[in-house]
Amino acid sequence: MKQSLARNELVAKLRSFNSAPVIKLYRLPYEGKSPREILARTMGNSISRAFHHETPSLRYKRWRWYNDGELLRKKLDAIKDQETFDRLAKELGESIVTDWGTTNDLGGASKMNIGIAMKIANLVLKHLTFSDSSRNPDLIELLHVPWDKFTLRPLRKIWRGHPVIPNSPSQGFVKNLAMYQQLHSLISGIAQEAGVARIIYEFWAWDAAH
To answer: What are the domain boundaries of the chain?
Structure first.
């Protein structure tokens, strides 16, 4: 797992990171897959493990966009600016929370929150963007970073928000949209300084580590 870095160290790492071979390998599982198949692949074991007594595979299928992958792809193909993309990403995250439900299967509170929902939404958007079904190369510059332990940990020395990022942060660390926006602004500035798209940070922090 990547260690926490100072800001100048992280900028230098991103500036020198050769993302091309990592992205090439990342694209392979999505070759020839329909948008519907891509959405089905997104709810992986690492996300599902967070939801004990919540039948995550079934709840994910209740999401209003689960069976509308082709429509979502068309919406993405039409996006040309960051504001429109940001609005769609937020809409997707909020709809996951709504469609998931507020209680678990035992009647207790669900562990789904907007932070985890935004991770799922951003993974969906990333998968669609880098699949061969995408017809909008501009999306790569617009993507948000999905927040989990791999993308959070390198920022421990840089993050000035509350609470502090622990040594082993969970994917539920981001509790609300205010925290999400703070992290988004932080990594946007770092990526801009490094001269790379935000999503390259995720490839560096997560994909390259695996």
So the answer is: 7-207
